[in-house]
Amino acid sequence: MPVFWSRYFNAVLKTVWEVRGTCNLLRQKRYLIYAGKVDHGFDKVSAADLQKRLKPLIRKTQPYAERIAHKGIWVEPKLFAEIEYRAKSAAGKVRHPFFKGLREDL
After folding, report:
1. Cα 5 from Cα 33, distance rounded (Å)
2. 39: which of 11, 12, 31, 96 fits an S-S bond (Cβ 3.0–4.6 Å)?
3. Domain spans of the chain?
4. What is the predicted pLDDT for the residue at 4?
């Protein structure tokens, strides 16, 4: 889950895993795809906790299969968040996304 930072951070970028390849499961590869920016649903406590959990995961490069134009602080995609959204655009980006919390069960 890549993230932008301000005092805590501005937004989390929603990403999804996409499987590409042949029908043979052994030859399929998973790619991380950008699916939109999530900038609602955080309070001071949840933002501070999320930042604390993301700091050890910082990396220098984007984790996406295709480079995106956003600048930010990138992290390893190790955490799973529950994101509620109203719809998806034709390009597959989420509309009106809301951070519900991290999934601890995965």
Report:
1. 20
2. 11
3. 12-102
4. 44
Mean pLDDT to the nearest integer, 78-94: 87
The alpha carbon of residue 104 and the mean position of all alpha carbons in its chain are separated, in whole angstroms, by 16
Q: How far is CA 80 from CA 12, 23, 30, 103, in A?
A: 11, 27, 16, 5
Q: Where are the beta strands (DSSP E) in the chain?
A: 12-20, 29-38, 58-59, 74-75, 81-84, 87-88, 94-95, 98-102
**25 secondary structure, DSSP code:** G
Across the strands, what pairs with 84? Answer: 98
Tell me, which fold does domain 12-102 have in CATH?
A: OB fold (Dihydrolipoamide Acetyltransferase, E2P) (2.40.50)
Q: Kindly report the backbone phi and psi dihedral angles of residue 3, in degrees, each rounded to the nearest multiple of 5, phi listed first.
A: -150, 150
